[in-house]
Amino acid sequence: MAQSPQPAATQEQRVEAFVQAYRSLRAEMQKVIVGHDEVVSHVLVSLFAGGHVLLEGVPGLGKTLLIKTLSECLDLTFSRIQFTPDLMPGDIIGTNIIVEDAETRKHFQFQRGPIFGHILLADEVNRATPKTQSALLEGMQEGNVTVSGAAHPLPSPFFVLATQNPIEMEGTYPLPEAQLDRFIFKLRVRYPALEELTEIIDRTTRPREVEIRRVITGPQVMAFRELVREVPLASHVRDLASLIVLASHPQWERAPDVARRFVRYGASPRGAQALVLGAKVRALSEGRYNVSVDDLRALALPALRHRIILNFEGEAEGVDADALIAQLVEAAEALSAAGKDAFVR
Asked: Packing angle between helix 11-30 and helix 63-73, nearest 10 degrees?
């Protein structure tokens, strides 16, 4: 006897399923990760928004552990690349090799590199040369890589989590601007507080095993990404996101003084996309099917801090990108309150 088709899930049921999955994923990660609550939240936002994330911090703060823990919570393949100065693009993407068939005829066969994984940890990405760093560009943007004129699709979902040491450290190369712009967020991993450091010592120096469950599959991740894009965006929230990005451009007619004085290049349109997609995920994670201005405020720093390039004066005065963005958001909100005239160029 044929079974009747299951009724389609309602919007409320889909949102509830997302909230449950998000909270389950956070809970599993918190079994291992101490503190870094905001970083964990932003990593999950990146995952469901369909972007990639860059984590910056000095060695020993748990960046790699956080990424490995996330991979253990997801029913997806995991791949890791340790970036070093002698790493070559072929070591990441793969290369064509000569093989023989059963009749001893030789032909080229593509040998896949470690980039062919659902979750890719690019560890200490800024220790490799810019040429090698750029090997990730096509895959992060297009979802495939090209070798000898042939395109090879990457697994779906494809999620790059890169770690980097502060660029002031010896043996590091700054990431090219085009590479930085491929990351939806740049997250700063800071030193733990006293209570957190004490908990880290307790967890890592005692014979205590933690069992991590795989709570989300690849198809679920892709379904949730579709749900994220369906979240409606009110016109005033959309316009504020545009104003925040435009306010970072010193050549814009309504740019605030802080941008004209300290900024060389403002955020790209990808910055606005990152801001809006991240805000949609944040809204869903709280059980809301609408985006608020608070969502934009909460994600302005991770979405824009790597997309704004300071000029000579800004670098000479040691302007902090986060403090600058906070002023840009404030200026954009003032322009938004002024109405549609704020978009006059």
From this structure: 130
The model carries a pTM of 0.89
pLDDT recorded at residue 7: 63
**Contact (CB, 8 A) for 121 and 68:** yes
Go through the domains of the chain in sequence order and give each one's CATH number: 9-85+117-230 (3.40.50.300), 231-339 (1.10.8.80)
**Residues 6 or more apart from 13 whose CB is under 8 A from it?**
none
What is the model's pLDDT at position 1? 47
Q: Are 252 and 29 in contact (CB under 8 A)?
A: no
The per-residue pLDDT for range 260-283, each reduced to its tens digit, is: 999 999 999 999 999 999 999 999
Considering only CA atoms, which of 122, 126, 96 is closest in space to residue 111?
Answer: 96
How far lies 8's CA from each of 5, 14, 104, in Å? 9, 10, 54
- For residue range 209-222, list pLDDT tens digits in order: 778 899 999 999 99
